[in-house]
Amino acid sequence: MEFGKVMTAMVTPFDVEGKVNEALTENLVNYLIDNGSDGLIVGGTTGESATLSHAEKLALYRYAIHAVNGRVPVILGAGSNNTAESVAFTKEVSHLGADGILAVVPYYNKPSQAGIYEHYKAIAAATDLPVVVYNIPGRSVVKIDLETLVKLADIPNIVALKDCTADFSMLSQLHARVGDKMKIYSGEDALTLPLYAVGSAGVISVTSHIAGMQMQAMLAAFDAGDIETARRYHHDIMPVINACFSVPSPAPVKFWLNKQGIATGQPRLPIVAVTAEEADQIEQVISAFQQQYTQIK
């Protein structure tokens, strides 16, 4: 299964009452596909999955899959720090028509490497869909180490890794040892090009809500051997990346989308909306970037 190079970790749109909304989801999906996203992650960290109820996740997933209508791959967040719950939810959502499952490292519990391996093995056994492992020690406290990832790559339907470790040494060794058995996606927007240069498959991005076309152009330039152009895109996109994470995500992206008429509502607590001062700073950065790239959406 080819997931694409620029997959967007989609925000979850809420209506004025703070509810998951089908029409808003469809509008956002269409906007993202039209603006550089060749895959969507629904119900991940950026989608505020920790604040969504079971019923809300199911509704959101159905809305997104229906809106996409086969145009790009859709990967659904199904992980938690409870293995039994993750297995049950994976089974439930595997029949909705998605193209893959994203499962985060169990957080808070601080499992051993053996526990992490068994957790993912159980999830993979619960579905025929491809599974993407999500290594994010900044949120989960524990990190999946190299040897565990190599073992996980031997499970046939564990096919990819979303990496937020920025551990180039480990990732280089992983790529050398498992190749495309486990495709590596940067989970850090700032490392999209550096990781791509050493063999990653692309990025699972937040910034692609705003700069998806430019991120695609950056990777296309690299593929064409035009390293200088790829590097220029990288440096041009960096201020937007910094703006997207200037306060806890997804508040900056939701602010900008709302301002552009792509209604996504406000973040749910404990994430708060940007302040007026923060909004001004974010707007200055992104407006300058978009004026620079009027020829590219």
From TrEMBL:
<keyword id="KW-0457">Lysine biosynthesis</keyword>
<dbReference type="InterPro" id="IPR002220">
    <property type="entry name" value="DapA-like"/>
</dbReference>
<dbReference type="InterPro" id="IPR013785">
    <property type="entry name" value="Aldolase_TIM"/>
</dbReference>
<feature type="site" description="Part of a proton relay during catalysis">
    <location>
        <position position="45"/>
    </location>
</feature>
<dbReference type="InterPro" id="IPR005263">
    <property type="entry name" value="DapA"/>
</dbReference>
<keyword id="KW-0704">Schiff base</keyword>
<comment type="similarity">
    <text>Belongs to the DapA family.</text>
</comment>
<dbReference type="Pfam" id="PF00701">
    <property type="entry name" value="DHDPS"/>
</dbReference>
<keyword id="KW-0456">Lyase</keyword>
<feature type="site" description="L-lysine inhibitor binding; via carbonyl oxygen">
    <location>
        <position position="50"/>
    </location>
</feature>
<dbReference type="InterPro" id="IPR020625">
    <property type="entry name" value="Schiff_base-form_aldolases_AS"/>
</dbReference>
<feature type="binding site">
    <location>
        <position position="46"/>
    </location>
    <ligand>
        <name>pyruvate</name>
    </ligand>
</feature>
<feature type="site" description="L-lysine inhibitor binding">
    <location>
        <position position="81"/>
    </location>
</feature>
<keyword id="KW-0963">Cytoplasm</keyword>
<feature type="active site" description="Schiff-base intermediate with substrate">
    <location>
        <position position="162"/>
    </location>
</feature>
<keyword id="KW-0028">Amino-acid biosynthesis</keyword>
<dbReference type="GO" id="GO:0005829">
    <property type="term" value="C:cytosol"/>
</dbReference>
<comment type="function">
    <text>Catalyzes the condensation of (S)-aspartate-beta-semialdehyde [(S)-ASA] and pyruvate to 4-hydroxy-tetrahydrodipicolinate (HTPA).</text>
</comment>
<comment type="pathway">
    <text>Amino-acid biosynthesis; L-lysine biosynthesis via DAP pathway; (S)-tetrahydrodipicolinate from L-aspartate: step 3/4.</text>
</comment>
<feature type="site" description="Part of a proton relay during catalysis">
    <location>
        <position position="107"/>
    </location>
</feature>
<feature type="active site" description="Proton donor/acceptor">
    <location>
        <position position="134"/>
    </location>
</feature>
<dbReference type="InterPro" id="IPR020624">
    <property type="entry name" value="Schiff_base-form_aldolases_CS"/>
</dbReference>
<feature type="site" description="Part of a proton relay during catalysis">
    <location>
        <position position="108"/>
    </location>
</feature>
<dbReference type="GO" id="GO:0009089">
    <property type="term" value="P:lysine biosynthetic process via diaminopimelate"/>
</dbReference>
<comment type="subunit">
    <text>Homotetramer; dimer of dimers.</text>
</comment>
<feature type="binding site">
    <location>
        <position position="204"/>
    </location>
    <ligand>
        <name>pyruvate</name>
    </ligand>
</feature>
<protein>
    <recommendedName>
        <fullName>4-hydroxy-tetrahydrodipicolinate synthase</fullName>
        <ecNumber>4.3.3.7</ecNumber>
    </recommendedName>
</protein>
<keyword id="KW-0220">Diaminopimelate biosynthesis</keyword>
<feature type="site" description="L-lysine inhibitor binding">
    <location>
        <position position="85"/>
    </location>
</feature>
<dbReference type="GO" id="GO:0019877">
    <property type="term" value="P:diaminopimelate biosynthetic process"/>
</dbReference>
<dbReference type="GO" id="GO:0008840">
    <property type="term" value="F:4-hydroxy-tetrahydrodipicolinate synthase activity"/>
</dbReference>
